[in-house]
Design goal:
The chain is of the alpha/beta class and 291 residues long. It is built from 13 helices and 9 strands. Helix 3 links the parallel strand 1 and strand 2. Helix 1 packs across helix 7 and helix 1 crosses helix 13. The longest helix has 20 residues. The radius of gyration is 18 Å and the shape is globular.
């Protein structure tokens, strides 16, 4: 693949290779140290971040590459300068560029006009690097092909990428969302979609949730609190899952809203392993695209 823009357009065989490489990088970090020495990777942020910024910058450094962090107030993507022109400039300086944006169309434009790999660090459509870390974390628990994954909450970009990744790897995906918040139809193929959280979680091997209000949706926060009030992953709901089920959350977590402290801090919560795996997943993506 030239770019990593969506899970939905990544071949299952390549996704499987990326999962294996993520876990290999995690287990044998020293083997890959310096693999990208002399390369430069641009990291563009239209939205603030913690895990994405740190994991990407540190990951590039650990591979020997130089990370160049760009903020939108410096670039003015689509305002100060068109995405196409930015792409044409950056390809002259960088070996790859990874972007965290509001609109997926900006990533597509960058990809169309840059002859270097373009990586989606988050858009309104998908969050593929997160999903790669997610399925790698699931694979540490059991083969994804044998896993039943229940996602409870907003059918958003995270849900889209997770559903695409789990089904591509042969797993079973269920999504419980309030009416009107279900995932987009193209991400519901082969997915069980319900408005009943308990139905989705029953017997699941993995229970996953995300915030109810994402960046850019702040004006909807009040309405969403009401619409999602039956969708908190608490100990009672988690109890419907398999006895050895793990809990995942892409973070940041709003404790007391989409998840309780008891589940976040549960002995079978793998939230912080999942966060660590963002580092290894991004390194795997860079290696796959550049090494």
């Amino acid at each position: 693949m030239k770019d990593f823009l969506t899970i939905a357009t990544t071949e299952p065989s390549e996704l499987s290779e990326l999962v294996e490489l993520t876990l290999a990088v995690k287990a044998q970090a020293e083997r890959y140290g310096g693999a990208l020495t002399g390369r430069s990777v641009g990291l563009f942020f239209m939205k603030p971040s913690t895990r994405t910024r740190v994991s990407c910058e540190v990951g590039a450094h650990q591979l020997g590459a130089q990370a160049v962090v760009l903020k939108n107030e410096e670039v003015g993507l689509g305002e100060r300068e068109s995405a196409a022109d930015v792409a044409r400039v950056l390809e002259r300086y960088l070996d790859a560029v990874a972007l965290r944006v509001f609109e997926h169309a900006d990533l597509v434009t960058m990809s169309e006009h840059a002859d270097i790999p373009v990586v989606n660090l988050l858009s309104d459509l998908e969050h593929p690097c997160q999903a790669l870390a997610d399925v790698a974390t699931i694979a540490e628990h059991k083969p994804v092909s044998d896993a039943v994954v229940a996602y409870v909450g907003d059918g958003n970009n995270v849900a889209h990428s997770l559903a695409a990744a789990v089904t591509a790897l042969g797993g079973s995906m269920r999504v419980a969302a309030p009416e009107g918040y279900e995932p987009a139809s193209q991400y519901s193929v082969g997915v069980t979609v319900t408005n009943d959280p308990a139905e989705a979680v029953a017997g699941a091997d993995v229970v996953y949730t995300d915030v109810w209000t994402s960046m850019g949706q702040e004006e909807q926060a009040g309405a969403r609190l009401t619409d999602f009030n039956r969708f908190t992953v608490d100990e009672a709901l988690f109890g419907h899952a398999a006895d050895d089920a793990i809990f995942l959350h892409c973070l940041p977590a709003h404790r007391g809203q989409e998840v309780t402290d008891g589940v976040m801090d549960h002995p079978r919560s793998r939230v912080f392993d999942q966060a660590e795996n963002r580092l290894h997943a991004f390194k795997a993506v860079l290696l796959h695209l550049l090494a």
